[in-house]
Amino acid sequence: MEPGGVGPRETRLTRDAYRIPADQKTDASINEVIRLLYSNLRAAPTEPFIREPNGSHIELPPNPRYKKKLGSEILILDLETRPLKSTEDFRKGEYNWRNINHVSGGIFNHYTYALIHGYDYKFIHASEFEDRHATWIKPSALANHIRDYKFIVFLDADAAFRFLHVPVEWMLNYWDIKSHHSFVMAKDPWDPKEPQYNSDRFNRTYTNTGFMVVQNNENTMPILKAWHECPEDVRYANCSQWKQPKFHEQSAFGEYIRYDYDKYIKELDCGEANGFPGVEISNCQGKFVRHYWFEKHNVKTDFRENIMNALTLPIQKIFSENTGGVIVQQEENVIHS
What family does the entry list (predicted)? Predict the structure, then answer.
């Protein structure tokens, strides 16, 4: 499926990056508000299981590798050539949650997730290429920041963390990510009725670049450099064919890059970190990360449900424990004189 997180620019912008370190306080301390809301909800990296909304459990395999929180060693990265429409509205005094689009909804999901777990966050406005699709900005942006972090977690704007309370470390344990894995990506759905749609020239299913975990190890920069330079047709003949046709940088990675670096790339089943509820092909249901190639408005719905769960839990606690005597027992349904 075509990544949806990077699109044509609506206005001319110079390159800029907005970074909010994990320990920096902002106006009205939204950092503290978010962390307080999730203080009793956050899962530990070694939590035995995660509870699904339907009551079932997702169990963590034994012997987890990541036992401590990595905090600012992890960067949650957003990468856009588009300006945020919600920012423009806010500056005009017209911000309204109901009116923001899925792009802002996705960005808010990613930023909130970083606040909850104490990760670094960056929103990078990148300039567009003159000769290739805007999604080709991914390899260079990753390369320019991976040196400063142990992991970068990148998401397209139409992708979202399903469980805001579940940390990256827990997912790394669940997926058994080892030190030699430079890239973690989920496969795209594969439909036997259209076998070539999401497959490379060897009939191998593409991995989707809308969600990537990039680990800083000795193989990461060579992979990113090869990927970035792929359309120049120096190392990989005919890679320039993916400058514009879909799936752009994703096709180039699937057709060429992964075959040279296969053992350093962890490919997840589609349902682990791609797709969304209702996708039957490859059971692509978005267990941990949802990628709404279609019905993109649901990015906002998922974010809203996560926030409302955290916000209403302390309210429910008040009614459950009758804090402040808000519940009064009326023994007799009569009017007292």
Answer: Belongs to the glycosyltransferase 34 family.
C-alpha to C-alpha distance for 302 and 295, rounded to whole angstroms: 12
Q: What is the 3-state secondary structure (H, E, C) of 234-285?
A: CCCCCHHHHCCCCCHHHHHHHHHHHHHCHHHEEEECHHHHCECCCCCHHHCE
Per-residue DSSP letters for 161-215?
A: ES-TTS-HHHHHHHTT--TT--EEEEEPP--TTSTTTTB-TTSPBPEEEEEEEEE
Average pLDDT score over the chain: 92
* Calpha distance 219→314 (Å, rounded): 46
Q: Which two tokens stand for residue 233?
A: 């047709």
Phi/psi-derived region of residue 248, left when phi > 0, alpha when psi is between -120 and 50, beta in every other case: left
Nearest to 156 by CA among 51, 250, 24, 27: 250
Mean pLDDT of 239-246: 96
Please give the angle made by the CA atoms of 282, 159 and 189, to the nearest 5 degrees: 15
Q: What is the pLDDT of residues 48-95, one digit of tens each?
A: 999 999 999 999 999 999 999 999 999 999 999 988 999 999 999 999
Walk me through the domains of the chain, giving residue ranges and CATH numbers.
16-325 (3.90.550.10)
pTM of the model: 0.90
The token pair that represents 183 in the structure block: 């890239």
Inter-residue contact 231 to 242 (CB < 8 Å)? yes
CB 214 within 8 A of CB 26: no
Return the DSSP state at 43. Answer: P
| Residue 2 CA: distances (Å) to CA of 61, 136, 183, 256, 293 | 32, 13, 19, 18, 7
Amino acid at residue number 150: K
